[in-house]
Structure formats: C-alpha cells, structure tokens
Amino acid sequence: MRGQNRGLRLHSLPQSSSCEAARMARRRIFLSLGGLGVLGNLAGNCRSTWAREEAREVSCDVKVEQLQGGLGPDDVPARLTFALTEKGTGNPILWKDLSSFSSTGSKPHALHVHVYDEDDPDIPGIEVGHVHPEDFGNPSASRDGKYDVEFEFPHPGAYTVELSYLLASSNNGAAKTIRVPVTLASKFEGA
Description:
alpha+beta; Immunoglobulin-like; 4-stranded antiparallel sheet; 3-stranded antiparallel sheet
C-alpha cells in the first residue's frame, strides 16, 4: 500500500476543536476545488491569521480633476486620484501592501484601472481604457494611499472606473475589484 496514498494527507495531531474544525473546513474547500494549486494555502496547520487576512476590506474614494487640452474636439482629459483605505480602521493602503498581478491582456501591476463608457450609443459599458499608476509617477512614494492616473475620456458623460488590486496579505491570490461611477459634465472651463 506504500505509494498509493500520495494525495492530500492531513495528519491527526492533537489540536483544539476550533483548530480541528478549521482544518477540516480547509480540507473540504481544497477537495471541492479539486486541488487547483491551493494546497500550499489551505492544507497547512491551523493559522489564526488566515481569517483576518481574508476579511480585510478596502474602500476607495475617487477625485476627478478635469484637465485642459484633449486630442479631439470632444475629448475630456482628466486626472483620477484614488484614495485607498482599509474599511473599519481608515488606515491607508500603501504600495507595499499590494502585490502585482496580471489583468486580462496586461503585464503584472499592483493596480489596474479600467474605464468603461456607459454612454456609448453602440455598446454601452464598453471598455475604453486601461492604465496603471506606475505610468504616471512613482506610486511607491505615496504615504497616504493616494494614487494618480490620467486618462483622456472620449466625450463628456457617464463612465464606470474599475480599480483592481491584490493585497499582499491575501492568501488566495484573487484580485479584488472596486467599481466607481464617474460623470464628466463638459470640457475644461478653467478657473
């Protein structure tokens, strides 16, 4: 029988009942996922930090500053400033708190900003842009969790800005997404 039992093998060491319950829950999750590369995260011993790390939630405030110029007559260039904070504590999410990950059709970045045009007459909600804070400065220098990108919106109107991120403390490696509605009223009118 030696060599036949090479799959997931959890040993029975004396543990507290809550730790044992957590270990069994992780085993059920692992088995239901078919072992999709999550063995290292789920099959280990009971870790009290696992639940805390998974429960960490992020909130995002977006400031939109319209800029002068624009390549086309209807284009509305703008600077978007994202302020990321941890819900509950209000602590800023710093660049070191994030991990790089690949978004569809993109190289790895810690933050991916997708822009969707909700007023497009042919395909409402179509993606019209994908940018990253690294393209516009040094986001690792931020000490307040604020990150800037600039984008030239094709026209005034309603958009959805989607911010995708991955916390470095996340054990499951799944990126999270925050979607924020943004409306650009008109071209820049100056101060």
